[in-house]
């Protein structure tokens, strides 16, 4: 069983930290507050989601240091090295601020400008300053559209529709 639509990955166990079985976890930097709020999470190991209570979450340089209940030594945590950590998607979506979306929810949305379909979202990336929607236009070319309110004023996930203020030449 691999990751499915009911769970979303929030990090990866990179290694142990210290001798008490703490996990060194890689995570998206904008999710630190969400990680701190977690009481439990699933570790996907050997195609099985295993639920663990979380005793503590700390941050060290570029990593989160997570102490899972019942994991008390280096050997206990090394079993889970390179495993992904998941939470139920519903829990994660509740933590998103207004205007924040899951990439999986955006991919496949039809893109409209002035009630005319001009493309479909095929991916999302970042240029460091902001997110970019990869939109395949009617010519089949991929265009990068800055995912900012001025250009993308409306996102309707229920209807899988994104409205953009088209700038000439933005999407071919």
Question: What does this 3D model show about the protein?
Answer:
The protein has 172 residues and is mostly beta strands. It folds into two domains: 7-95, Elongation Factor Tu (Ef-tu), domain 3 (Beta Barrel), CATH 2.40.30.60; 103-163, PRC-barrel domain (SH3 type barrels, Roll). It is 13% helix and 46% strand. The protein has helices spanning 32-37, 74-78, 89-95, 103-106; strands at 7-17, 22-26, 40-45, 48-60, 63-68, 84-88, 110-113, 116-126, 131-137, 142-146, 154-156, 161-163. The strands form two sheets. Strands 1-2-5-4-3-6 form a six-stranded antiparallel β-barrel. A six-stranded mixed beta sheet has the order 10-9-8-7-12-11, with no helix packed on it. The protein is elongated. The model has no long low-confidence stretch (mean pLDDT 85).
Keyword list:
2 domains; mainly beta; 4 helices; 172 residues; SH3 type barrels
Short description:
The chain is mainly beta and 172 residues long. It has 4 helices and 12 strands.
Indicate the topology:
Blueprint: E1 7-17, E2 22-26, H1 32-37, E3 40-45, E4 48-60, E5 63-68, H2 74-78, E6 84-88, H3 89-95, H4 103-106, E7 110-113, E8 116-126, E9 131-137, E10 142-146, E11 154-156, E12 161-163
Parallel strand pairs: 7-12
Antiparallel strand pairs: 1-2, 1-6, 2-5, 3-4, 3-6, 4-5, 7-8, 8-9, 9-10, 11-12
Helix fraction bin:
10-25%
Shape: elongated
CATH superfamily annotation of the largest domain:
RimM
Q: Which class of secondary structure composition applies to the elements?
A: mainly beta
Tell me the CATH topology of the largest domain: Elongation Factor Tu (Ef-tu), domain 3
Low-confidence stretches: none
What's the end-to-end separation, in Å? 39 Å
Specify the CATH architecture of the largest domain. Beta Barrel
Count of helical stretches: 4
Biggest β-sheet: count, sense, barrel? 6 strands, antiparallel, barrel
Instruction: Report the count of strand segments.
Output: 12
Tell me the name of the CATH class of the largest domain.
Mainly Beta
Strand order of the largest sheet: 1-2-5-4-3-6
Strand content: over 45%
């Amino acid at each position: 069983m691999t990751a499915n639509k009911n769970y979303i990955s929030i990090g990866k166990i990179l290694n142990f930290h210290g001798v008490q079985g703490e996990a060194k976890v890689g995570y998206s930097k904008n999710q630190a507050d969400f990680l701190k709020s977690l009481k439990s999470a699933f570790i996907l190991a050997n195609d099985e989601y295993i639920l663990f209570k979380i005793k503590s979450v700390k941050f060290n340089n570029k990593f989160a240091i997570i102490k899972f209940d019942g994991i008390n030594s280096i050997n206990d945590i090394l079993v889970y090295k390179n495993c992904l950590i998941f939470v139920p998607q519903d829990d994660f979506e509740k933590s998103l601020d207004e205007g924040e979306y899951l990439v999986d929810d955006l991919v496949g949305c039809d893109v409209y400008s002035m009630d005319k379909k001009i493309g479909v979202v095929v991916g999302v990336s970042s240029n460091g300053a902001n997110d970019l929607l990869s939109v395949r236009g009617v010519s089949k070319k991929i265009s990068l559209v800055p995912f900012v309110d001025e250009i993308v004023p409306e996102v309707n996930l229920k209807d899988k529709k994104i409205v953009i203020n088209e700038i000439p030449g933005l999407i071919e």
